[in-house]
Design brief:
Elements lengths: L6 H20 L5 H7 L11 H13 L1 H10 L2 H21 L3 H29 L6 H28 L2 H23 L10 H26 L2 H4 L21 H27 L2 H19 L12 H21 L14 H29 L4 H6 L2 H17 L5 H19 L10 H28 L5 H36 L6 H30 L14 H16 L1
Helix pairs in contact: 1-6, 1-7, 1-8, 3-6, 3-12, 4-6, 4-19, 5-6, 5-8, 6-19, 7-16, 7-18, 9-11, 12-13, 12-19, 14-18, 14-19, 14-20, 16-18, 17-18, 17-20, 18-19, 19-20
């Protein structure tokens, strides 16, 4: 059981970390062309650059269940610090990258670290506030996550105005280090620190030394400072091996890889016992399934195709991995998602989260498309239209958390999602000039508020019914459901929209530019109709989250004793 003498300060720090990771999801929007140039790709090679974005999403989603499980085995604070360490490492690798594979590796590490912050923070709220008092803290977490998505492109634009794209990720790294230190100071380790004696002390010391050597050697290999590379005496280790041009295929790069291997071997006694308890086989199967879905849909151009180039291979792989996980779940004594976690209101929470993700992504992607089709040709100006919606979502999240003080989760989420469905229904009739009207701003704000209202109730209901010792996994599943709804929902809605688009085009003998744009508007309208149906179904399911306020009860000593051994045994194993 995580505890803190300053829960508000700890939550605020963790929430800022969540916002930082959310901002990083969109921070590359304006910097993508510069990043491509930085790794030797021209603007005509945009398809090759899709892993820069999909790599982050892959890391963000694929290992979330595993991180959620780890957050149930060790203190939440330690998981937060570990995730921030991965985020900092990924940011530094991204900033130093001059090759696409290295850049994508950095983005994947950023995604893993950034994604893991969300379920760990949600589980932290469940630890620090009892049922019935979690509404406002959960609303804060949901709000800052949405604020991060708004600030990401803006922060990127400000940094690019005074620095290059690498500066974005150096600032990320510095912010991540600061937040990790603050979490460590404010929240401590979240548990009694085991005494390190004897052989264990030498393992820790060896791991630290090898880890520092890895950072220095691989950092120098990726940085390749001109003074060292051009030096007659010290430049030889930086010369690539014959037949290679990569900075990692050098002597210093090889030394760094050896140091990394030594770090993993020496530190294995410290982390392997915890990972072993987390069901690595189940985690691997879920990662393959989720990763295949992400790469299938995230690598596709939503305006032209439904699935990415490898989708027809990845979708069967996802199905096989999911089937194998079901077998694993039923046969393992201690599976990744423990038996009894998905009970009560957890299941409807997952369904609502998935459908909300579908409605959300339809707006985020297709409002700028509609703006370009009916108004401006400038992509940045079209994206600014979306700000009306994005600013309303965090306001709705805060309002939803506050309303949970008086009303049940179902009575907060269902009306909000019903408003969203009505607003999307109105949006499905938008056409030429609609975005210039005042009414469009009102509709976008109402839709944003409606989606925001559902965020805290979904998490509140799931945490209230999930076992306290599995809050991390339950929170991770809610986040995964939303992200899958975004990735897969967009693909399915786009498929239906494209069908209507091509049907319109094929019915015209010689379509003009205006007719093609009109067909494009029909495609967007179709997507909004599908999103409205998703929001309507979500509103109906949200009623199952409960009409009564979650009952408040303070945690007893017995509750603490029931959960403390989980953390203690994980650290002393």
């Amino acid at each position: 059981m995580t505890s803190s003498r300053r829960p508000e300060a700890l939550l605020a720090t963790a929430s800022v970390a969540v916002a930082l990771a959310a901002a990083d999801t969109y921070v590359v929007v304006l910097a993508l062309e510069d990043m491509m140039s930085g790794v030797g790709l021209g603007i005509d090679a945009l398809q090759k650059a899709t892993p820069i974005i999909s790599g982050f999403l892959l890391g963000y989603i694929a290992v979330l269940p595993l991180i959620g499980r780890l957050a149930d085995l060790v203190a939440r604070q330690r998981v937060l610090v570990a995730c921030l360490a991965l985020f900092v490492l990924g940011s530094a690798v991204t900033a130093l990258a001059v090759e696409l594979p290295v850049l994508v590796t950095g983005r994947v590490l950023q995604g893993i670290g950034g994604g893991g912050l969300v379920p760990a923070t949600l589980a932290l709220v469940a630890d620090l506030w009892p049922p019935g008092r979690r509404g406002t803290p959960l609303g804060v977490v949901g709000a800052v996550q949405e604020i991060g998505s708004v600030l990401g492109p803006l922060a990127g634009a400000l940094i690019l105005a005074v620095w290059d794209w690498r500066g974005i990720f150096w600032i990320n790294a510095a912010a991540g280090i600061l937040l990790a230190v603050l979490i460590r100071i404010i929240g401590g380790r979240g548990e009694r620190t085991p005494v390190i004696t004897g052989r264990r002390r030498w393992w820790v010391l060896g791991s630290v030394v090898a880890g520092l050597a890895t950072i220095v050697l691989l950092g120098l290999a990726l940085w390749a400072p001109d003074r060292l590379v051009s030096d007659v005496t010290y430049g030889e280790p930086f010369v690539p091996y014959p037949g290679h041009t990569s900075r990692l295929f050098t002597q210093i790069g090889l030394w760094g890889v050896i140091a990394l291997a030594a770090t993993l071997v020496l530190s294995a006694p410290l982390w392997w016992p915890v990972l072993r308890r987390a069901d690595l086989i189940g985690a691997a199967l879920i990662s393959v399934a989720l990763g295949s879905l992400v790469l299938t849909f995230a690598s596709a151009n939503p305006e032209k195709q439904v699935v990415g180039p490898l989708g027809w291979w990845l979708l069967p792989a996802a199905a096989v991995a999911a089937a194998l996980y079901v077998v694993r779940h039923r046969t393992a004594a201690d599976p990744l998602v423990a038996h009894g976690v998905i009970r009560g209101r957890v299941l409807p929470s997952l369904v609502v989260s998935l459908l909300v993700g579908t409605a959300l992504v339809a707006i985020v992607v297709d409002i700028p498309v509609l703006a370009r089709l009916t108004g401006t040709a400038d992509q940045t100006e079209a994206a600014l239209v979306l700000v009306r919606f994005l600013l309303a979502v965090p306001v709705g999240a805060l309002l939803g958390g506050w309303l949970l003080r008086r009303y049940g989760p179902g009575l907060v989420a269902a009306p909000g999602l019903a408003l969203t469905a009505v607003g999307l229904g109105l949006m499905s009739r938008w056409g030429q000039g609609s975005l210039d009207e005042v009414a469009s701003t009102v509709v976008l704000v109402v839709v944003g508020l409606g989606i925001g209202l559902a965020i805290a109730p979904v998490n509140d209901a799931a945490l209230a019914d999930a076992p306290p010792t599995h809050h991390g996994v339950a929170s991770a599943l809610v986040v995964v459901a939303r992200m899958i709804g975004m990735v897969v929902g967009l693909g399915l809605l786009t498929a239906i929209g494209l069908h209507r688009f091509y049907a319109r085009i094929q019915a015209l003998p010689d379509p003009t530019g205006d007719q093609v744009r009109a067909a494009g508007v029909v495609q967007v309208q179709t997507v909004f109709v599908g999103a409205a149906l998703a929001a309507l179904v979500a509103a109906a399911v949200a009623l199952l989250l409960g009409r009564r306020k979650v009952a408040h009860h303070d945690l007893t000593d017995e509750d603490v004793l029931d959960t403390e051994p989980v953390h203690e045994s994980a650290t002393t194993a």
